Amino acid sequence: MNAKGIRKLYKKLILGAITVSMVMSLSACSGNNATKDKQNKDKVETSSQNVDKQSYYPVTITNYNYAGEKIKVIFDKAPERVLTTNQTTTELMLDLGLEKYLIGTCYLDNPILDRLADKYKKVLVVSEKYPTKEQVLALKPDLILGWKSVFADKTLGDVKEWQQRKINTFAQRNTVKTVGNFTIENGFKDIDDLGTIFNIKDKTDKYVKDLRDRLQKIEEKTSKVKDKKKVLILEAEGKGKYRVYGKNDLVGDMVLKAGAENLAEKSGSMSVENIVASNPDAIVFVHFGDDKKIQEADLVKEFTENKALANVKAVKNKKIIITGLAETWAGGVRTVNAVERYAKELYPELFK
Fold first, then answer.
1. Which tens digit of pLDDT belongs to each residue from 120-172?
2. Would strands 82-84 and 143-146 be described as parallel, antiparallel, or unpaired?
3. Is 215 domain-assigned?
4. Which residues form a coiled coil (predicted)?
5. Mean pLDDT of 271-279
6. Are residue 161 and residue 282 in the same domain, yes or no?
7. Which of 11, 52, 104 is nearest to 3 (CA)?
8. Across 107-199, where does the E strand assignment appear?
9. Which residue(s) pair with 38 in the sheet?
10. What pLDDT, on a 0 to 100 scale, did the predictor assign at position 296?
């Protein structure tokens, strides 16, 4: 190749190198701009989320004091240090994925649900029954959840005292007599309030909808029953006496939704003689105790080994349904499961 050809080739190579260099530089700039754009977008989204959280609060809910009077409870932000004082509220917090906010819990009526056991093990158990005021103050909670009874003078005292300390309170509706009859619906309202308090309404709306849908399916099945089972709902008080749950109680509503008729109009006491006279088709037997060793077969003996009850239809036909207090009082994650189980035991032919 002559000198002229060499110079042309050299120029082409130089131009090619410059072109490649420019393309790479532009590409790098474009990549940097894209990265900066993404970073800016992420910052904007994070900032927007923070603004959303800040603009959501404060929120106000209606709740109750120990006297059953309505009170307004204001939350300036989501609670971060929550003490649950009863099993129903503990299991609700765990099931809604709010365990990171739990600083303590107490008072089991029955063994904790198996599917929540691992979460429960990580929570401090403050006391076997209700805690003392001193124990609660030492924990520095910003919210106390539980039954109305925890706010009695002999336990933690009225809610006003706690609110003066900037500690909010929440009593489950089905433990407050002034609310009226205790119902499954009241339990759904409690869950809805928790959604408002913790700004998780999307989750609680779906949670409640799923429960309503399940309940509706149960009622659709049991509505076909023409001859409804007549039921007594009992809890042993000792010495041959029983507490009977009426239609005004949560478990009364649960039995109704399961397609049965509660023979007791209102709650009260009942003797063995009263049970014989009522002659129920089935007995729903409420028990409490957090010992996992308690077996249903042993609980059933309360009736099967009492000769005075031998001719009662529920005993003769072995229609004694065992249910825990954690299922039947206040309302929580177990309520609809229990209704379904009652319906299946009362009308097994509907669920084949």
1. 999 999 999 999 999 999 999 999 999 999 999 999 999 999 999 999 999 99
2. parallel
3. no
4. 201-228
5. 96
6. no
7. 11
8. 125-127, 143-146, 168-171
9. none
10. 77
Query: Which range marks the domain in which residue 194 is found?
Result: 59-199
Domain containing 273 — which CATH number?
Answer: 3.40.50.1980
Q: What letter represents residue 173's amino acid?
A: R
Please indicate, yes or no, whether residues 67 and 157 belong to a single structural domain of this protein: yes
Residues 184 and 231 in one domain: no
Long-range contacts of 186-191 (CB under 8 A, 24+ apart): 186/250, 186/331, 187/250, 187/330, 187/331, 187/332, 187/335, 188/212, 190/92, 190/331, 191/92, 191/96
Check whether residue 263 and residue 328 sit in a common domain: yes
Q: Which helix (H) or strand (E) is 18 found in, with range?
A: helix 3-56
Asked if the structure places residue 283 within a domain, the reply is yes
Residues 188 and 233 in one domain: no
Same domain, 182 and 243: no
Q: What is the pLDDT of residues 56-103, one digit of tens each?
A: 999 999 999 999 999 999 999 999 999 999 999 999 999 999 999 999
Chain segment 100-119, per-residue pLDDT in tens = 999 999 998 889 999 999 99
Average pLDDT over the chain, rounded to whole?
88
Q: What share of the chain is helix, strand, coil (3-state, %, to 5)?
A: 55, 15, 30
Structure tokens at 209: 């909808």
- Rounded Cα distance between 245 and 243, Å, is 7
- Cα of 50 vs its chain's centroid, Å: 27
DSSP annotation of 122 reads: T
Q: How many CA atoms lie within 13 A of 67 on its CB side?
A: 6
- Count of domains forming the chain: 2
Asked if 69 and 187 sit in the same domain, the reply is yes
Strands 70-75 and 59-64: what pairing? antiparallel
Write the pLDDT tens digit of every residue in 170-207.
999 999 999 999 999 999 999 999 999 999 999 999 99
Using an 8 Å Cβ cutoff, are 110 and 87 in contact?
yes
Both 181 and 290 in one domain: the answer is no
